[in-house]
Amino acid sequence: MMLMWIFFLFTLLATVTAEEDDQQRGSSFSGEYGNGGGTSFTLSGEHRRGKITGFRIQEQCGGIIHGIQFQYGNVWSELHGLKSGLRHEVLLTKGENIIQVLGKHYSYYIQQLIFITNHGRIFTFGQPAGYSFNASPLYRGAFLSYISGHHNHYGLTGIGFHWDEPRLTKA
Questions:
Q1: How far apart are CA 11 and CA 59, in angstroms?
Q2: What is the pTM of this model?
Q3: How far is CA 39 from the centre of its chain?
Q4: Which domain holds residue 80?
Q5: How would DSSP label each residue in 119-134?
Q6: Which residues contact 140 (CB under 8 A, 6 or more apart)?
Q7: Under 8 Å CB-to-CB from 160, ≥6 apart: which residues?
Q8: What does the pLDDT look like over 91-109, one tens digit per residue?
């Protein structure tokens, strides 16, 4: 009986400690989705300029995602991938953050990206073909801070999403 109580207390203590660690961390990673071949990239460091205020997607007409770029404050990051095809530009409104990204990948490339914001806006790019993924933060209130991934001479081959809580970033 005593051994059972010790086990119960140990389990309870471990659970409380894990929950406290989760509350203290507040950043998480989803991905990498796709095969990830080619040249690696990351926008880590760009997010220190502030939150994402816009993004651009280079898309093959009705096809794969060629390239991606984010705006932090009023400064655009480097384009990762290929500057080819249709260019879509989205500017976020004040207080708007990306809170979920859905997509599809097939063969070597990212086929589709769907960005969902905390203001209920949904932006869809690419072709709905391949294996689905659903990227979202582990922590309530967190939002997309930056991305990382891979690209080659034709398009994005892999993508991962890095999430932060509001208290971890500049406004």
A1: 50
A2: 0.82
A3: 18
A4: 26-168
A5: TS-EEEEE---SEEEE
A6: none
A7: 29, 30, 31, 32, 33, 135, 147, 148, 149
A8: 999 999 999 999 999 989 9
